[in-house]
Structures are given as C-alpha cells and as structure tokens.
Amino acid sequence: MKEGNSLETEIKLVVQKFLEKAKDKEIQIISHFDTDGITSATIMLQTLKKLDKKFSVKIVKSLEEKFIYNLPKNKITIFLDLASGSLNHIEKSGLKDVFIIDHHEINQEVPKDINIINPELNGKQKISGSCLTYLFCKQINPENKEFAKLAILGMIGDMLEKDIDKLNNGILEDGEIKRKRGLLIYPSTRPLNRTLEFCSNPFIPEVTGNIKGVLELLREVGLNSTNGKYKSLLELNKEEMAKLVTAIILRNPKSKNKEIIGDIFLIKLFNKLEDARELSAMINACSRFGEPGIAIQLCMEIPKAKKRAESIHVKHKQFIISGLKFVSETEKIKGNGFVIINAKDKIKDTITGTIASILSNSSLYEEGTIITTMAYYEDKIKVSARSVGRNGRNVREVLSRVINIIGGEVGGHQCAAGCMITREKEQEFINCLKKNLEIEVIKVSN
C-alpha cells in the first residue's frame, strides 16, 4: 500500500478523472447509513443535480460481497464513507469505473483501476467521509461551498471534532459555523430538563433516563423553572454553568472537566441555529429506523422531513435509554480488559454501536477496555466494538483476526469497529473473540 500525493492534490486528480468519465454515463452512489454517510450522499447528489447528471442513490448498512457483485456494471460507481475494506471484492466484481471517497483503514493493496481518495494513503489526516466528499465536490464547483455545513454534521457524527486541523478548519469557515465553549451535553438549544433526561454522551448515572434524578440535580444547582420552563444550556450564565459542571462531575467522578467542556457547534438549518450534535443524532436516528430517505431530505432542508425526523429521533432516544437500562441489568461476559454484551433480540441491531460508544465514553470502565456489543439482525448478528480512551488496542485488528477465522464482514477504525456474522456462529465468535482479547492482553502487558 503506497503513500501518494498530498490529499488536496489527489482530490484534484481524481476529480479530473471523474469529470472525464461522467460525460455520458449514469452514476450510482453507494453510501453508508450513518450521519457521515448520509451527509456525504446528500453533498454528492446535490452536486450531481447541479451538473444535470443522471444518478441513483443507495444507502447501505454494510458493504456485503453479494451486494457488490450484483451492482450494474455499465455505470460509474461512487462509494462514499465505505469500501476501503472491500477492494478485493470490487476488483473481482467486474465493476469498471469505480471511485471511492472514504476515511476507513485500508488493509489491502489498492487495485490500479480503482480511483480512491483516502487520507490513509495521503498524509493520514483525521477527516470524515463527508468532509472528503465536500472537498471533492467543491473542487468540481467552488459554489458547492453551500454544502460545507453538511460536511461538518458528518464530522461531528463521526466524533472527529476534537481533531480539527487546517483542512477541517477551512470547511468550518466555509460553512459559517458558530462555535461556543460550553458543556458538551446536547441539544444546547433546548430546555435543560429534557436535555439532561436524554443525555447519553456523557452518560450521567442516576440522571440519564431518570426525570426524578434530573429535577434533583437542577434543584441542587439552583436552576429552577420559570413558568414551568427551564433555561437551555446556551442561556446559562458563567456561574450557573460552573455549578452544573460540578454537579455532573460529582455524579460521574471519572469524567474529567476537559472531557465534558468543549466546543458547541451551531449550524443554520431551516433558517434556525441548531446544535450540530443534535442534528447529527437526528440524521443517524432516521437511518437506524430504516428511513435514510427522510435523513437525506432533512439534510436538503425539505420542510415536511423535519417533523418526521423529530418524531423518529424521540423514539430513537427512548430505545437508547431502554437499551442502557437493559445493559446495566444484564449479565456480561467479562475478562481482563474486555466486556462482551450479547443482547440477542433485546436491543435493536441498529443501536449496538451507539450503546457501545456511550459505554466507552462513560466512567464505568477503565481506559483501554474493549467493549463489544452484539444484537440479532434477521439471520445475522451485528457486532460493534469500542475502545475506552484513545490509547487502547486496535479493535479493528482484533475483530479482523476473529473474522478471518469464522467468516463475515468487518470495517471501521482503530478505536471503533464493527462486523456482521451469521447467527449459527454466535458461540464460536464469542469464544474466538475472548481468546484473541486474552492473548492481546498478555502481549500488551509483557
């Protein structure tokens, strides 16, 4: 796998090739179903609309081998926010004009006929799929600057806002994003009682999902309602904010001040300033409820999609709270430096990753612990793994080793990865994962 040009140079070269190929051919966009993938697809489809190109869009949960082989061969194929782990399948599938815009790890040689934009090959910057898609589309036409705010939504969806470098900063400026320092609980624009009740990142023991605990906390810090309405985070003065931060840290002693205070990004959507993390969570919720079309319409600011997206999001938050309740009460498979939670059919497969992420950001587990959640999906099992903190083992590598033995699809990053296995491999997967995690601990501790 060879390192190439700078990322910006590579984008220019790939855009030239794409525009040449796209003169008289239909385009099929295949994008991932999370916020990063949805915002990437929306940026791309609006760019192609402006070019008056004929195109189709498919949003997928994962890129399975069979799906790749069944794609029409006579179209240009653009993969967004996925496909870096499926290069061999793409090469064998007979697809001709393939373009990949992705930021996931590459662990195989890039075939010469595949055009790929991936920071793994060009400088290893921390950048989301949506930001890469935005830079690609802005290269096609500088007027596509209007889609910068969508790129930022995708970046926040992939929790990359802590890694803002020069490139990402330029996108923030293009999107006219407002930044404020504050408590990283969202939405910062809604009344505090509702915000705290559904707050899952950070997870606040005895407050998240517990309205009685919420009201106790607010009383304790002297934040009372006026005419039955509580202030929003953005309306708090410095003293109120400091008291609230202290009360949350006392309930969550492992969370350090710097981890729960940070930049709040405010984005203008439907002519109103909204908390980007809330919008990002809403897009994600729509996809995970099988409504990626609503998520795309929300990104395109189509009014009727807003109400539908809001009601899906409320349901999604309720699923997460009940999922966290199930996790707190269920028996877990534990070992040195790892926890496996096999939810079977008790948690929706679409929120396993969300639950794993919340647990990895909570104060419940030591740094370096690998948290793996499993849930049934039709005749398969969806597996999500997260590392607590940023200095742990490479979870994608751990899952890859297991999948190489038992079969399945794997993808993701060093700290967050997932795979799909068949249901009959359930016990074999757990045994093999435990074995690998135990070997890994021995290796690390030696």
Q: Please, could you describe this protein's structure?
A:
The chain is an alpha/beta fold and 446 residues long. It folds into 3 domains: 167 residues, inorganic pyrophosphatase (n-terminal core), CATH 3.90.1640.30; 145 residues, no CATH class; 115 residues, Diaminopimelate Epimerase, Chain A, domain 1. Helix content is 44%, strand content 18%. The protein is built from 17 helices and 14 strands. The strands form 3 sheets. A 6-stranded mixed β-sheet has the order 9-10-11-12-14-13. It has a 5-stranded parallel β-sheet with strand order 2-1-3-4-5, sandwiched between helices. A 3-stranded antiparallel β-sheet has the order 6-7-8. Strand 9 and strand 10 form a beta hairpin. Helix 6 crosses helix 7. 45% of the residues are buried. The model has no long low-confidence stretch (mean pLDDT 89).
